[in-house]
TrEMBL record:
Domain of life: Eukaryota
GO BP, sorted A to Z: respiratory electron transport chain; tricarboxylic acid cycle
Protein name: Succinate dehydrogenase [ubiquinone] iron-sulfur subunit, mitochondrial
Topological type in the membrane: Peripheral membrane protein
Length: 175
């Protein structure tokens, strides 16, 4: 969609010229899943937000923060590290389950970016999934280091040595 600019011609007539999109604002539409449990009669829906990409950092999480801070403070999502480590901002972005903090905004301005909560999980509100089942499963497998003998907490520092680290190092299996 070309942008139009009005100018005054040689004899005072108004003329319109199509301008390059690079000269105008680069506006991206984000179609964001919305659902509020406090409004039980209202079904889930997607809400469109227009974000100027020239005034926004490059990641999807940055766009969501801009929407929350400047357009709609009721938008709800999780975030924490902003470095792709913690997984708090996991969501479905343009059909791919990924982290919003490491997902670049699609630069195709003609196609809206669709943002949904993770599939197959109950939704608490908007983009926030219920992690209760995840934490139950996590606890059941106990994916943390466990000592052979229980030390009394706070009595001494337990130092990790190289021999203790070696079994934890990743060794790819070759078949």
């Amino acid at each position: 969609m070309p942008l139009l600019r009005l100018t005054t011609g040689t004899f005072g007539q108004l003329r319109t010229f199509a301008t390059s999109p690079a000269l105008g604002k680069r506006v991206k539409t984000f179609a964001v899943y919305r659902w509020n449990p406090d409004e039980p009669d209202k079904k889930p829906y997607t809400q469109n937000f227009e974000v100027d990409l020239d005034d926004c950092a490059p990641m999807v999480l940055d766009a969501l923060l801009k929407i929350k801070n400047e357009m709609d403070p009721t938008l709800t999502f999780r975030r924490s590290c902003r470095e792709g480590v913690c997984g708090s901002c996991a969501m479905n972005i343009d059909g791919v389950n990924t982290l919003a903090c490491i997902s670049h905004i699609d630069q195709n301005l003609s196609k809206p970016s669709k943002i949904y909560p993770l599939p197959h999980m109950y939704v608490v509100k908007d983009l926030v999934p219920d992690l209760s089942n995840f934490y139950r499963q996590y606890q059941s497998i106990e994916p943390w280091l466990q000592r052979e003998k229980e030390a009394v907490k706070g009595l001494c520092e337990i130092v990790q040595n190289i021999g203790g680290i070696a079994p934890l190092d990743y060794k790819p299996r070759v078949d």
